[in-house]
Amino acid sequence: MSFTHILKAVQQSVRSSGKTFLPVQQAGVLLFTRRAGAVIPGLSVRGSEAPVSALSCLCQTRRRFSVHVILRNKEEKHRSVSAYQSPKVSSAQKVKDAGRDFTYLIVVLIGLGVTGGLLYVVFQELFSSTSPNKVYSRAFDKVRSHPEVIGAFGEPIKCYGETTRRGRRQQVSHVEYVKDGLKHMRLKFYIEGSEPGLKGTVHSESKENLETGKYEFRYVFVEIDTYPRRTIVVEDNR
After folding, report:
1. To 5 degrees, how large is the angle CA 88–CA 94–CA 99?
2. What is the per-residue DSSP string for 133-173?
3. pLDDT computed for residue 222 by the predictor
4. Out of 40, 86, 94, 161, which could bridge 171 as a Cys pair, Cβ 3.0 to 4.6 Å?
5. Highest-confidence segment of 81-90, 97-106, 223-232
6. Which class in CATH covers the domain with range 132-236?
């Protein structure tokens, strides 16, 4: 087989396609048949099945070949050019993507709303002067500093709330209601001191002060769990 005929056939095919030619500095030809291969300076031939009509001038049987040409000139020796065209997005795909983004936005907004609500509740419980925990803390401060309570229970005095199912004593029993247009709150919790086996129940009621927005105690008293029962009045503003 004459390799010169191969080169001429390839050149004629390229010229007939109307493409622009660049100076070729380096190229190679690698030709594979079903039995053997050969290398020809100038072009690189390898790879895939070609129809008989494409190289009718070369052979009568089908051969595996592909053409790979490297074109370089002196000015563009170290320069490479690549082109990429992104596929066009259909209208249906755009609508689908927009719906998905909108769903994500709704989920994020709901999450932010829930988080904001939880933070508000926590702030109200821990820092608001009208929260049950704040009123409970103020009532206990009055009880543990009262001389008669200290004398009856001994120091130190500790307090706790209602016992939960898990055995914890952190839940403070309280009732909030409105009377004469003012908010009221009743609390009940328990205290113990250094006296063994002696316990007490603290009752308090407070109402809202419209000027300050805070709760003011109407009364605070301690019931000692003895027989007969004894009551220590800590504060009475009724």
Report:
1. 160
2. HHHHHHHHHHHHT-HHHHHHH-SS-EEE-B--TTS---BPE
3. 94
4. 161
5. 223-232
6. alpha beta
Question: What tokens does 170 get?
Answer: 């952190």
* Residues with Cβ within 8 Å of residue 113, at least 6 apart in sequence: none
Q: State what percent of residues in the chain have pLDDT above 70.
A: 55
DSSP letters along 59-122, please?
-SS--B--EE-----STTTT-------PPPPPHHHHHHHHHHHHHHHHHHHHHHHHHHHHHHHH
Terminal Cα distance for the chain, rounded: 122
Q: What is the mean pLDDT of residues 49-62?
A: 41
Q: How many CB atoms lie within 10 A of CB 232?
A: 19
Query: What was the pLDDT predicted at 18?
Result: 55
Query: What predicted TM-score, i.e. pTM, was given to this entire model?
Result: 0.47
Report how far residue 234's alpha carbon sits from residue 139's, in angstroms, rounded to the nearest whole number: 9
Q: Which helix (H) or strand (E) holds 188?
A: strand 182-192
